[in-house]
Amino acid sequence: MNIQDIFDKGGPVMWPLLVLSILSVSTIIERLVFWISTLTKEQQIISQVIESARRGLWGDAYRGAKQAGDQPMGRFLFAPLRLNTPDPELFSLALEAAADDELASMRRGDKILEAVIALAPMLGLLGTVVGLINSLGSIQLGDIGTSSASDVSLGIGEALISTATGLVVALISLTFYRLFQGLSFGQVKAFRKAGNELEVLYRQNWPQVKSQLEPIYESERAAAAQRAAEEAAAAQPLIQFSDDLENPEAPSAASIGIYENNSMAENPLSSEPEASLDPTFNNEEPISSSSDDFPSRSEGEPSDRN
Questions:
Q1: Shortest CA distance to 33 belongs to which of 108, 117, 111, 102?
Q2: Which of 229, 204, 172, 195 is nearest to 32 (CA)?
Q3: Average per-residue pLDDT in the chain?
Q4: Distance CA 210, CA 40 (A)
């Protein structure tokens, strides 16, 4: 019996069970990858941060926790250290808040597995009930002991396929669900132990921690300010371009300057002011049009009209 025969004999309920099984398998694979990565790197992060703090090298502890920001334990230990030299009470509150957030994120996918565990057996039972109704609905009292009764028993056996499938999906999901729950409970202990040790070291060396971490905070603030200035400078041409697109009839000052420079390069003489038609513009005397400035025609000179 291959998979196609199982789906054909299991009835239409097999397709919802297939969807639930795909959800369950994908969640299990994602959680397995997460837990393998977390458990293999967790002890190394704890040793690096706690040992640096125990030796009084709080700058190395800060950098080690920051570099491990892709891991839950790294984010948990870095949460109080990234604050600007908090007092011990605030340090403890930051550890508690970070632990709550990380432990909640570790339970991601549990709701999907819980839904599969609850729905898969019920869907399988529903398929069996529907198969029994179809099988027993076609039998009559006179058919008992005949070949028709054997066909009904065969139909009942096929109807139970959906129940078996639902139970298999639910059992696999339940197994990994309990495994992930146990790993989450183990992380609670690991977080509590590492957080308490880091908090005790911080309370013992608070003035020393403050003097060591203050230069790191100053350098990070300066770097953040420089990045913000660079981003603002890079965004300025985009802002100017968007303004030009919104007001196409109002050319910008830069475009006007470019146009004037091009015009002067093409016609350098155009930069000189044109002479005014007013004769007094250039402080010159007007040309007189009186008859005394022109030689008079003598009486004996013949006229051009003749």
A1: 108
A2: 172
A3: 77
A4: 32
